UniProtKB/TrEMBL annotation:
It comes from the Bacteria. This is Autoinducer binding domain-containing protein. The lineage of its organism: Bacteria, Pseudomonadati, Thermodesulfobacteriota, Syntrophia, Syntrophales. It comes from Syntrophus gentianae. The keyword Signal does not apply. It holds the Pfam family Autoind_bind. GO terms for molecular function: DNA binding. Keywords: DNA-binding, Transcription, Transcription regulation. Residues 37-100 form the Transcription factor LuxR-like autoinducer-binding domain.
Length: 106
């Protein structure tokens, strides 16, 4: 399943049951009130049960995006080794944008 901006709830019915769509909406609602790292970890665990995926990274930030830091990376060791070996860390557009805006805390 590939999500784009144009992806709608109606499209989800092709992949998820009504119950699963409600679970996903509940997860989205919960995401709005996350304040602590353990809450985020719990939410990601619930999301992974609903929509299986191989790996992820996520972070926490404020509404005005003054602070953003990486909380966890769940990619396989093999993937991370390849990512570093190939130097992708130096050309990753997401990391580059975060560093450029000084949003990443060392």
């Amino acid at each position: 399943m590939y999500f784009t901006r144009e992806f709608s709830i109606k499209d989800l019915s092709k992949y998820l049951t009504k119950s699963e769509i409600l679970d996903l909406l509940h997860i989205c609602d919960q995401a709005l009130s996350i304040r602590e790292e353990d809450e985020l970890r719990k939410l990601i665990t619930e999301l992974k049960k609903l929509i299986p995926f191989d790996g992820f990274s996520y972070g926490l930030g404020t509404k005005n995006r003054d602070v953003l830091y990486f909380v966890d990376v769940d990619y396989s060791l093999e993937y991370l080794e390849r990512y570093l070996e190939k130097g992708y860390i130096h050309i990753d557009p997401i990391l580059d944008a975060l560093v450029e805006e000084r949003k990443v805390i060392n």
